[in-house]
Amino acid sequence: MPLLSLFPLRVPDLTMRRLLLVSNSTLHGSGYLDHCQQQISDFFGKCSGVACRVLFVPYALHDRDGYTKTARDKFRTLGGGNTFRLLKSLYDNQVVSEIRKRVLEDGVPYMGSSAGTNVATISISTTNDMPIVYPPSFAAIGLVPFNINPHYIDPDANSRHMGETREQRITQYHEEVDTCVLGLREGCMLLVEGNKATLLGSTNARLFSRGKPRVEYNPGSDLSFLLNDAH
Amino acid sequence: MPLLSLFPLRVPDLTMRRLLLVSNSTLHGSGYLDHCQQQISDFFGKCSGVACRVLFVPYALHDRDGYTKTARDKFRTLGGGNTFRLLKSLYDNQVVSEIRKRVLEDGVPYMGSSAGTNVATISISTTNDMPIVYPPSFAAIGLVPFNINPHYIDPDANSRHMGETREQRITQYHEEVDTCVLGLREGCMLLVEGNKATLLGSTNARLFSRGKPRVEYNPGSDLSFLLNDAH
Fold first, then answer.
1. Is A206 strand, coil or helix?
2. I want to staple B132 with a disulfide (CB 3.0 to 4.6 A). Which of A111, A173, A229, B178 is the partner?
């Protein structure tokens, strides 16, 4: 009997994991998913020669049928919409653990943008969305051991608006927990292949670690260290 | 025996209610709470001649002692900071019902700005803040029968940012429930005296009602109709 069977929980082989976590679906001045079309093609092109079927999760928008049609037409893939609604529906339909299992244990590729990126991380605590519905937890699918802020935006020096900046909001999060937050500016995305993580796209990402200076990363940067729980 | 004692819940006399709900603590180009100083003075000046004591709730910021000191120094009053943290702490300290009772039944004046305004309404579902902690509910103190979006901001026609506009987020909320949302732009505030509500300040508010056109209100507008549950 193998040693592993002594343990009630199977330890997933994370080398199977394949994720493409995109900041945003539309980039200013270009069409829908244009900015990440090549990366999507590369990502799903590696489906081992079998006909590639995509499970689309339309829970984040109210009109699920319309959203699904848009997705089918435009290969919208996973994500976009309101993060609270998406996560609550994933819990209501009891698929959070199933998605985690399929992605981490069976190597099913996962792609999300915006809300779909938020729910792939540790928690939705760094979403920008309004809490329009109450999910049973802010804990998310947990495909990576850190959080992401999609649509990350730098303060506008000319703005007269006095609401908190995105950075101030992330600082408030770090007053509560020490989970790293990767701020993905519109135009960039994170590719995770097993234990390797790479920043792709046309814009920089900014990493927020509790009590440490913020660090900027260019497209092409190796961010595999973020996949280490101990980071 | 009076008829009222047949009922387990005392029906509050809402003519006692006195609220000052401010969009923001600081307005661009002016000092802290300067933009609503006169209204605050008028609001607390009506304290029936007794020495006016203010209960300050510092739960919305991490450094409660520092925040309280700032409040004492500058008369910061209730509110500001992260709405999720404020509401969770109100629940953790079991003061949600007590504040509701004191304000609605005993006529204790309530002033809040930003987060302090959010928690005074039906729910925090139209906050702009990040969900950095998980409160036991999004239901708030319920001093008024509608929701407010503080720091309401119009779309910037020159922005290249593709995240949802504030109006789009409120529309998502109205896909879930039909509670009215009053968008308080920075610089305005709502004064509630009994069953009368008046918009004060220097900027307009925008009212969002599910399935109806948005309506703009100038300072001085009578918004008492919002206090009618049936609205």
1. strand
2. A173
Which option is the CATH number for A13-146+185-201+220-226: 3.40.50.1820, 2.60.260.20, 3.40.50.880, 3.10.450.50? 3.40.50.880
B23, B25, B89, B114: which is the annotated catalytic residue?
B114
Residue range B29-58: mean pLDDT, rounded = 71
CA-to-CA dists, residue B48 to A146, A215, B111, B133, B159, angstroms: 54, 55, 17, 39, 49
Tokens at residue A12, please? 């997933």
Active-site residues of A, by number, are 114, 129, 151
Query: End-to-end distance of chain B based on CA atoms, in angstroms?
Result: 35
In the predicted model, residues of chain A with pLDDT beneath 70 are 1-12, 32, 46-54, 70-80, 229-231
Q: Do A173 and B24 touch (CB under 8 A)?
A: no
Q: One of B89, B123, B125, B129 is an active-site residue; which one? A: B129
Interface contact A151-B162, CB threshold 8 A: yes
Nearest partner of B185 among B24, B30, B26, judged by Cα: B24
Q: What pLDDT, on the 0 to 100 scale, is given for residue B1?
A: 36
Which CATH code is given to the segment(s) B15-227? Answer: 3.40.50.880
Dihedral, CA atoms, A34, A36, A37, A38, nearest 10 degrees? 140
B196 contacts B184 by C-beta, under 8 angstroms: no
Could you tell me the two tokens for A221? Answer: 């940067």
pLDDT digits over B126-153, tens only? 999 999 999 999 999 999 999 999 999 9
pLDDT: which is higher, A191 or B81: A191
- Residues B168-198: tens digit of each pLDDT: 999 999 999 999 999 999 999 999 999 999 9
The residues, ordered by sequence, that sit 6+ positions from A35 with a Cβ below 8 Å of its Cβ are A27, A187, A201, A202
Question: A87 at the B interface (CB within 8 A)?
Answer: no
Interface confidence (ipTM) of the complex: 0.80
Residue of B nearest to A147 (CA): B132
